[in-house]
Amino acid sequence: MKLYSLVLNDNNYFIKQYVKDNNAEIVKEQTYRPNEYFNYPNLEEIKMEMKNIGAEALILNDIHDLQDINTFEEFINQAEKNNIEVIFASQKLKTSKKYTIRELVFYLSRNFYN
């Protein structure tokens, strides 16, 4: 079983793939980074939007339904094709806000929500 997650940290954002065995143990882990030539949202703008809504985590719904991916671009394409929603979640505020992958990737960097 393969699971994918979008990871945000202080310096970067990237896709992690986890391959789990039948006992739900992680047997393989792989990271895909965005291609610098593609116009993806600036990390600071993503973090600012998360702060605006009190978000502490990014969660991708139903990510296990994606086929195998080899690049960050393939991840974005498949996530969009499968209408996967990105959830900004905050346990502290007990709230969440949903975005489509297209909204996240193409509009967030252009201050779409401001």
Structural features, described:
- By secondary structure, the protein is an alpha+beta fold.
- The chain has one domain.
- 24% of the residues lie in helices and 33% in strands.
- The strands form two sheets. Strands 1-2-3 form a three-stranded antiparallel beta sheet, with no helix packed on it.
- Mean pLDDT is 59; it is low at 56-65 and 106-114.
- It comes from Aneurinibacillus thermoaerophilus.
- This is Resolvase, N terminal domain.
Characteristic key phrases:
disordered C terminus, 6 strands, Resolvase, N terminal domain, three-stranded antiparallel sheet, globular, 33% strand, 114 residues, alpha+beta
Straight-line distance between termini = 38 Å
Strand order of the largest sheet: 1-2-3
Contiguous uncertain segments of 5+ residues: 56-65, 106-114
Largest sheet: 3 strands, antiparallel
Mean pLDDT reading: 59
Question: Rounded to an integer, what's the Rg over CA atoms?
Answer: 14 Å
- The share of residues in helices is 10-25%
In N-to-C order, the SSE pattern is EEEHEHEEH
Percent strand equals 25-35%
Overall geometry: globular
Helix and strand composition category: alpha+beta
Number of helices, counting only DSSP H or I runs of 4 residues or more:
3
Q: How many strand segments?
A: 6
Provide the domain count: 1
